[in-house]
Amino acid sequence: MTPSPTRRVAILLSLLGSVAGCAQTGGGGPAMTGPAIDRFAVSTVPFDPNLDLRTGTYTPSGSVLVSYADKGVEDRRQVKLATMDDDGTDFRPFFSGQIPERAKDNGIRFMVFPDNKRIFLGDFVLECATVLEQCTDPKLIPVQYPAEVAGGDHVSHRWSEMIVAPDNRHIAWTTLLSNYSAVVLTGELQKSGATYIIAKPQIISTLDPFQPDPAHPDGVLPKPVLGGEVKQFVHGGTALSVVGATRRDIPDSVVQSLLAPERQAITDTPGYTETTIFSPDERLGITMTTRFSEQTDPAILGLVPRPYPDSMNMGLSMLAYTYSVTGVRRARPGNIGPALIDIEASKTQDNYQGHNLSTDKDWVYRSPMSWHPGGQKAMWQEGRRTGGSERIQIVTLPDYRPAAPVPGKITPDRIPYGSTDLSVIKDYAKAARDIDVKVYGKRSGYITYRRTPAGVIEKSYFDFSDDGRSVYSGTERLAANPMGRSTYTAKLQLSGPQPGRMDLKMTFGPLTGELPAKLIFGPDASGEPLTHGFAEFNGRRIEASSLVP
């Protein structure tokens, strides 16, 4: 996938030696796994060194779709595609051409349809009369998005991620708006003459996370926030794997049902964990994560769980992502996984880590991730910080006995909580995002939450408790400046059965440059370090000084 402009391939010819798998630790807790994963091995897919590999992903038939270029070709829209086996053999080119650029697009993605005859590129579908492995005359067909998100000043990028359901008809995507917010939509992809149109679109993300509190005239009730960047259709096409938050202010992986307004946390890490791609039987997953990277894991920001981290978020996600993901891909030491996880263990075991699949400090994870249809292998991309060649990595599970793949179902046309009124998107994009609310605890106290268009977020806790045992007191504040310095401070006390505390100041530099979101440790005018302090929760303590700039 071409990296999103908002978030900022060839490969070794000989097969590199496998790395024996074992449980690894990271993120401050012992590795714990369920019974599903025993041994595993990581290896590199051989690729012609006279070509530049760009991306690789498994197809529904088990071959590998690769996008690549001739040496020296830097135009990412000049695309060559081939299929090959994952041992590097049977390389078979079937497409070479220029993918037209369209206003408000977001690069090019390669999402293979379950029918294995089409590839969703974002703004186009590459269509074959046969399966990709036999394709000889592919046709490039434009996709027409709903007018409300296709363009306009209120749209930053028409799509960020787009995915295809098992029924080969329905899709989901995330539209990025000009006010740095986003909406998630589903629709049905229908062929109409020489165009694909997206019919029956509906919004499935939360636009207003608050409702009046009938018990307190000056209060509101936060609602669970649905939506988040979409990653994969799961449960046969009746749910989505998305980026979300349930306990912490830093993202984790969540499954959102399309049958009811429900969501379930798949991962729970204090650091940055963004994507989970499920195996065909949905018992295993592969996920991008900072949990194994102690010096660049932003776990200090998410260690202490906070009430309502979705609707009353402190806005730390972009700083955490830029520091721990973008920065590590460019120059900062560390890794971002991926991790191989047992889904059930990840959902239920405290401090679950899974297995670190990063094998070389000089290579860094890049998307996409995919599973072989047999369920015993998964694939992802890696690149060097210095640029140049990329490579495809495979993890093989020789002892794993997959269950039957989850059968495909028809994704619903009408989602119970979805909205077909897309006219609200323009007003939503124009909203100032000026929030000033008060949330009363179910047992005691309250929280005040202010968010201004100037990038300041303040959250104050006044002996707040929902359960009568865990009580929050203190404040958090973020003053964000993407092109300058952003400062987050927290003086927060959590008392109760799992106590916690934050006495923390973190100052980040601009979200650009070789070390984006650089932590600034130098002194301020009074001589106090611009980044200092700690967070602690339930016996674990993280010092700001343990992180690298």
Would you kindly provide a written description of the structure presented here, covering whatever features stand out?
By secondary structure, the protein is mainly beta. 6% of the residues lie in helices and 39% in strands. It has 5 helices and 36 strands. Strands 7, 8, 9, 10, 11, 12, 13, 14 and 15 form a 9-stranded mixed beta sheet that branches. Strand 13 (170-177) and strand 14 form a beta hairpin. The longest helix is centred in the middle third of the chain and has 14 residues, at 317-330. The two termini are 29 Å apart.
Number of helices: 5
Computed over alpha carbons, the radius of gyration is 23 Å
Class by alpha and beta content: mainly beta
Question: Which stretches are low in confidence, meaning pLDDT under 50 for 5 or more residues running?
Answer: 1-35
* Largest β sheet strand count, sense and barrel closure: 9 strands, mixed
| Helix percentage range | under 10%
Strand content: 35-45%
How far apart, in Å, are the first and last alpha carbons?
29 Å
Signal peptide: 1-23
Keywords: Signal
